[in-house]
């Protein structure tokens, strides 16, 4: 087995990887920095959209992989990676105020699942 670095970008806490088969790119987040990243392993280029908050997962929509389901601290949002604009889909109730979204993935039926960190 051979392991090779494909990017020089360093993350504070890079996690939540999602390989997009359609675009052949790797989406991931830099959690505490608030970055949503898209790596093209063929070129080594990482594109970044910065958001104000804690990001914990990123999942491209099947219909358009530039549209992403993301968490941003206490919110679930739809992010347009091309424009950097996002739309609020839902958010946690006010209490407990310390709660925030954590890791998440889609199941085989395309339903998003996420945990909550208190």
Structure explained in plain terms:
With 118 residues, the chain is mainly beta. Helix content is 0%, strand content 53%. The protein has no helices and ten strands. The strands form three sheets. A four-stranded antiparallel β-sheet has the order 1-2-3-4, with no helix packed on it. Strands 5-6-7-8 form a four-stranded antiparallel β-sheet, with no helix packed on it. Strands 9-10 form a two-stranded antiparallel sheet. A hairpin with a 5-residue loop joins β7 and β8 (86-91). The N and C termini lie far apart (39 Å). The model has no long low-confidence stretch (mean pLDDT 93).
Order of helices and strands: EEEEEEEEEE
Number of strands: 10
Q: What oligomeric assembly is this protein in? A: single chain
Q: Unreliable segments (pLDDT under 50, ≥5 consecutive)?
A: none
Overall average residue pLDDT: 93
Counting helices, strands and paired strands, the structural category is mainly beta
Query: How far apart, in Å, are the first and last alpha carbons?
Result: 39 Å
Question: Helical proportion?
Answer: under 10%
Largest pleated sheet: 4 strands, antiparallel
Q: Per DSSP, what share of the residues sits in E-state strands of 2 or more residues? A: over 45%
Shape: globular
Number of helices: 0
Strand line-up in the sheet with most strands: 1-2-3-4
Radius of gyration: 14 Å
Protein name: SMP-30/Gluconolactonase/LRE-like region domain-containing protein
Pfam families: SGL (PF08450)
Keywords: Metal-binding, Zinc
GO molecular function, one term: gluconolactonase activity
């Amino acid at each position: 087995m051979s392991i090779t670095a494909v990017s020089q970008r360093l993350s504070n806490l890079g996690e939540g990887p999602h390989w997009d088969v359609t675009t052949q790119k790797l989406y991931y987040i830099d959690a505490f920095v608030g970055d949503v990243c898209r790596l093209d392993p063929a070129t080594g280029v990482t594109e970044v959209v910065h958001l104000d908050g804690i990001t914990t997962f990123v999942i491209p929509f099947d219909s358009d992989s530039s549209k992403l389901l993301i968490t941003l601290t206490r919110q679930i949002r739809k992010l347009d990676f091309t424009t950097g604009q996002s739309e609020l889909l839902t958010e946690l109730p006010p209490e407990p105020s310390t709660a925030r979204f954590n890791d998440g993935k889609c199941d085989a039926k395309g339903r998003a699942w996420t945990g909550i960190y208190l």
